[in-house]
Amino acid sequence: MTSPASTDRVPPQLSAAARPAPGPAADEGLARRLRALACTAPLHDLDARKVNLAGEYSVYGMAEVALAAIDLVTLNMDFDTGADHEQIVARLIPRIAAQAPQRPTGEHERVARWVLENLINVGSVDRGFRAVYGTFGPDGTYVRRDYDFKLIEEVPGPGGTVYLRTTDEAVNVLVGALDTDVTSAQIAAEVKLEVLINRGRLADAQLAAEQARYRTVQYSETLRRALEATRRNVRAVDWLNSVPDMIAEALDHVADRYRHENAILTNIRKARDETEEPEHKRRAAELVDIVKDCIRRHTQLQSRLLEAGPLFRAEQDRQAFATPATTSGTDLYGHLVAPVLPLPLEQAIRVTDAFFAQGTGLRTPVSVRVADLVDILLTPPVEREHLGAEMPEPDLIATPDDSRFSEEQLVAATELLDLPADAPRRLSGLLAEARRTGDPDLAYLVALLAVHAASPAVGTAYRQGEEKLLFAVDDGTELDDPEFGGADLIVGTALLDAAGMAADRTEAA
Amino acid sequence: MTEHVDWSEPEPAAAPAGASLTPADAADAARLVAFGLQPKVQPARDQEYTELLRRYREDPAFARLADAVAAGLGLVVLEVSPRAGMAVTAAEDSLFAVRMGDYARRTAADSGDRFLHGLAHLAAAALAFPRPEDLADDSYIGRVTVNGVDAFVRQACRRLEERAEQQGENTDPATDAPGLEAAWRIWARRSATGATKDARRPAASTTGIVAKALVFLTDSGFLQRTGDDGGGTYRTTARYQLQVRDMAGAAAMAELLDLGIVPVTDGTASLLPAEDTEDLELVADAGLPFHS
Lengths: 509, 292
Description:
Chain A contains 18 helices and 8 strands. By secondary structure, chain A is mainly alpha-helical. Chain A is extended. Chain B has 2 domains: about 10-90; about 100-290, no CATH class. In chain B, about 45% of the residues lie in helices and about 10% in strands. Chain B has helices at about 15-20, 25-35, 45-60, 60-75, 100-105, 110-130, 130-135, 145-165, 185-190, 205-220, 240-260; strands at about 75-80, 85-90, 145, 225, 235. In chain B, the strands form 2 sheets. In chain B, strands 3-5-4 form a 3-stranded antiparallel beta sheet. Chain B is elongated. Mean pLDDT of chain B is about 80; it is low at about 1-20 and about 270-290.
């Protein structure tokens, strides 16, 4: 990465002249490029090191697997967490298997894990990479510097699980052009996608759709950061103007994208169904998946945006409305943490050491008697309980059946209301028939069911794929009955197109 | 902080009671100090402890005796009250003091690790008492989570990184002078967590370091574990507040002043990003412990 070491004893003016454009600005650009170059080094390194692995691994293109892994992690990064380690391994295997189909699956998995672990750099304490590069300081001295970076980092998820996230460096390595204005880039990508679909060029459309999804991920990532900052800081954040503006903007954005992507979805579906060519059909089907994923991410983003307001109010209550204390003590963050962090390590450590020495309290020294020591050393280790404590047998109490109507009554009422689709009946007639059975409560149940049918649960029936649905309509006729008042409803059964609905549902899912 | 009274000097006010002190009283005073050495024992749960505390507060001679026992053992008495009990802590170089080398083995060789462990404790306190009022208010109970502490330090580091970037500084340290690396980089560089074989946090990750600090503070009777959310949720005890307010905060401040750094704030909470709202979209990975 630096110039060869053999050029010793070069006259200083010559080396200065050799620099393309002397001055700190040029050097800074060089440093930036050196850092960018360093980010690719771990990938090249994989291919260079595969010969050292026990076994014959040269058939595998490790850099290719690594880039695919970074792609997968980026695409699977969720709002809160990141990508699941095992899932990434599982999804990498098909590509690895394609590289060497005759090798056993176990080996493919080993390669996937090796690549992923090397991208995380599991062996090092920091789990990151370090590259050394040199720059000229303002006074002309040559300084070697360490550049630390990560490609895939592990972040804590809920319940102590660990997820993977790609770092900014990795995303920039992956697609250099990503480092642009998110909003405009996204709009551009979507316009492009629409045009491509209209012209039927699905191969390009898929590329554009995937790019749109990268942008979507990046956009939600930016917003996630902003929202979490808002959550933490009540007074530092301008809740009068800038934050509501930002949230409104983001909501507009989500609404806009949602509309847009639904339109695209409809278009692609059309393309998928109309096209004759199987290749086009497959491409379009993949596109449908990608766009659906985009929509899912937008929905997630939107729900986050809606949480921001209540969160702020809760924090406001907690922080701002409490009575101020009279004494003002040490402001631990402002007086200690904030000034310490920018200090050089040698100085900062003095402060943290002082805090540690005085802030940890006391430990009573342990002294062991020899007699106890023998016992301790001879005690066999306690077997770890894998299953936990035994569950006590639950003591169940039978609750009395306090239902208003019995099962038999329900069956009888359902039978009564099981009307043919072409012959609706009046409620009064149904009540009369119910009374004829001799059960006085049955009429009540029938009346209740009929009233309930006045607002039939069409949505539920649709989702569950019911074939028919009970409904009731009021045509203005008054009910003349000794027990009930109101309208003499017309009760009937509507037949539903179950097959058509099922087809619709699979479409929408 | 209660100053230890020089008990060899006779004091006229307490003369009648002081004259009648017996070895049994000394034993009682020592027992009270022994209770103080078990920070997890709560005064309200132990009748003898409560009784001794009452005696300390009502009998000045007994109080001075207990203070003297504590001082002789190398302990500093922070407060004696029903809520905090006999709150004692180790004096510098005391037998009871916690040494960094015993606390974490790696810190002896690696100054970066040593800093991380120290900062974890400082950050935990800063997050437990985010505002100066919280530290001053005796009835305040702070809450911290492992992930919350890590996230908040990372956020601060990120802001420094961005500021350096804006000013066009190159923060990459010189290869041969690791001691000159800016402190925030050490934390930012260390990974937050990692996958291990037995599904535990890697001890060298920042969440591992924070978790170790919080567990240690729990053993010191400074925190109480309340749940598993956010990597482990804890609430503070009266003792922790005293320890941070009277001992640790002052000691760290003195060290900082010694370095020639005089932090000036206006007494309001500063656990916030800088006032300009430009920061808004830049701050990353913040997470209040109160909402995890």
